[in-house]
Design brief:
binds phosphoenolpyruvate; elongated; 8-stranded parallel barrel; single chain; 14 strands; binds manganese (II) ion; 11 helices; alpha/beta
């Protein structure tokens, strides 16, 4: 971190700043330039109130050199994190496929689609039991009943399950049923929930917030990791832009960027990313080429009857075609797809 002193700085002002640093146990490295004086700050800044220093009259601005996330940062953990979910690995050589409906709607449909996605080669069954809907009048999910149905589908198919947890009240219950907790885009900065999830030992699929920068997203991962749970899987699911043709803009460039900055696995969600089934398969493949460790995709046996997100759900035939393409693509990007 570098403190740039204001152009009117003098020895007294510099002393004020360096004293603050010393109080936090940090040594200052002062350089006098022709027009400006800068103070280099090296060391553990955890006891330093950086914003308060930036508020000092004598300080022009602070320039950060290191990223604010440490545990999620590749600099301190160069090897990729590989998350073990039973016999499956996420973040290693395997291309992981999570597929299923947006919501668990009823037992019969869920069990049927679970067998369909399993047969075509999925590893993990997705399905929301608690749904974050824009309207309070829309279907809100089946709650615990939905989780029980997911668990039954796991019994029958051997698929792992991923499902969203929306609040800390339900965290213990959802944790009991799922193999991976999903933290939805709308909750990406629910810091209390992030911390509570961080105290569990479940892998977490952390979706990028609707308008979150990459750094904010990684800081949310940091929240979870700071509590001891390092099994964070990042999920790029599209962000808000000025474009309205697609539901969101799938930020494909975020995938290599995050892979560059962090050691955590990345999954691409083209369903919420584009919001129109027609474009989902293409963007799923693009996400894999961009370096994603897997995909999460919405599949419904009758998208026109789905209780949520039907317009972005693949039907079984389109899903099977996507899986065939992914099987050809996987070795090209150095992945295996079983
Ligand atoms: C979902 O996966 O169905 C979902 C609601 O996702 P997101 O939080 O990315 O909108
Ligand atoms: Mn959905």
């Amino acid at each position: 971190m570098i403190i740039v002193m204001s152009h009117t700085t003098n020895e007294l002002a510099l002393k004020k700043v360096t004293e603050r640093l010393e109080q936090a146990g940090i040594l200052a490295h002062i350089s006098h330039g022709e027009n400006r004086t800068i103070v280099g700050v090296v060391g553990d800044k955890s006891k330093l109130n950086v914003q308060a220093i930036e508020a000092m009259e004598e300080v022009e601005k602070i320039v950060h050199i290191a990223a604010p996330y440490k545990l999620a940062n590749k600099d301190f953990h160069p090897e990729p994190t590989i998350i073990q979910v039973g016999d499956l690995t996420i973040g290693g050589d395997e291309l992981v496929v999570m597929a299923g409906p947006c919501s668990v709607e009823n037992r019969e449909n869920l069990l049927e689609i679970a067998h369909i996605v399993k047969k075509a080669g999925a590893h993990i069954l997705r399905g929301g039991a608690f749904k974050p809907r824009t309207s309070p009048y829309s279907f809100q999910g089946m709650g615990e009943e939905g989780l029980k149905i997911l668990a039954e589908a796991r019994e029958q198919t051997g698929l792992k399950i991923v499902s969203e947890v929306m609040d800390s009240d339900n965290l213990a219950m959802v944790t009991e049923y799922v193999d991976i907790l999903q933290l939805g885009a709308r909750n990406m900065q629910n810091f209390h929930l992030l911390k509570e999830i961080g105290k569990t030992d479940k892998p977490v699929l952390l979706k990028r917030g609707l308008s979150a920068t990459i750094e904010e997203w990684l800081m949310s991962a940091e929240y979870i990791m700071s509590q001891g749970n390092h099994q964070v899987i990042l999920c790029e699911r599209g962000i808000r832009t000025f474009e309205t043709y697609t539901r969101n803009t799938l930020d494909l460039s975020a995938i290599p960027v995050v892979k560059h900055l962090s050691h955590l696995p990345v999954i691409v969600d083209p369903s919420h990313g584009v919001g129109k089934w027609r474009f989902v398969s293409t963007m799923a493949k693009a996400g894999v080429v961009a370096g994603a460790d897997g995909i999460i995709v919405e599949v419904h046996q009758q998208p026109d009857k789905a209780m949520s997100d039907g317009y972005q759900s693949l039907n079984p035939d389109n899903y099977k075609a996507l899986m065939e393409d992914l099987r050809q693509l996987a070795p090209i990007v150095g992945k295996t797809l079983h």
